[in-house]
Amino acid sequence: MRIKSVFAAALTTAAVVIPAQAGNVRGVVEIFTSQGCSDCPPADQAFAGVINNNGVLGLAWHVDYWDYLGWKDTFSSAQATARQSAYGKGSYTPEVIVNGTRVVENSRSSAAIASALGGSLPVSVSINGSTVHVGSGNGQASLVLVKFYRSKTVAIKRGENIGKDVTYQHPVIGSRHIGTWNGKAMSVDVGNECGGGIGCAVLLQVGVGRILGAATL
């Protein structure tokens, strides 16, 4: 599903990174989706088939611009919509972006998503207890903490997917900036925000663009 919109300007701060020891995540797959989008369930399923395998982190951002179609997405947020707009790749669902730069054309194919991952991320990010450790490199990026439900099943009672029970993997429930990386090794304590059915991930990202490293709690 597509709509016309004015996109927010993507942050394009350049970063040249010296390869370092790989973190505990080798790639990040983000899907922009909606419970009110009839095209989305096959892509949601393909996304679920890729994440958590071989160090792949998946984050499902549920946009809010389809909520008017008769069903308000239980995970939708203006923050998810703003993130998709900031990427500047389009405003439609489903959309899959790998490592902050590559759009997967066939979002319904787990194989297509997996093939877009490539090698490991260039900067080491790891978590020990509640402390995030970021390795050294060359450049500047933001450190972002993302919280998500590990898995939730939703009975959709109205809209384009009426009558379907859909299990969603890693729907995002919020994110926030926790630090700025300037190429030097650093550590940040994130406290005890996650556990049980709530997961946390940390992204080292250049604006809303290239993801240099990631880790999960």
What brief labels describe this structure?
217 residues; mainly beta; 4-stranded mixed β-sheet; 4-stranded antiparallel β-sheet; 13 strands; disordered N terminus
Outline the structure in words:
- There is one protein chain.
- The chain has one domain (27-216).
- The protein has three helices and 13 strands; from the N terminus they run βαβαββαβββββββββ.
- The protein has helices spanning 40-50, 78-87, 110-115, and strands at 27-33, 56-62, 95-98, 102-103, 125-128, 131-134, 141-149, 151-155, 165-169, 172-181, 186-189, 198-205, 211-216.
- α1 links the parallel β1 (27-33) and β2.
- It is globular.
Please outline what is shown here.
By secondary structure, this protein is mainly beta. It has one domain.
Mean pLDDT: 88
Strand fraction equals 25-35%
What is the H-and-E element order?
EHEHEEHEEEEEEEEE
What level of helicity do the residues show?
10-25%
Number of domains: 1
Most strands sheet:
4 strands, mixed
Radius of gyration: 17 Å
Widest sheet: strand ordering = 2-1-3-4
- pLDDT under 50 segments (min length 5)? 3-23
Give the SSE layout.
Elements: E1 27-33, H1 40-50, E2 56-62, H2 78-87, E3 95-98, E4 102-103, H3 110-115, E5 125-128, E6 131-134, E7 141-149, E8 151-155, E9 165-169, E10 172-181, E11 186-189, E12 198-205, E13 211-216
Parallel strand pairs: 1-2
Antiparallel strand pairs: 1-3, 3-4, 5-6, 6-11, 7-10, 7-12, 8-9, 12-13
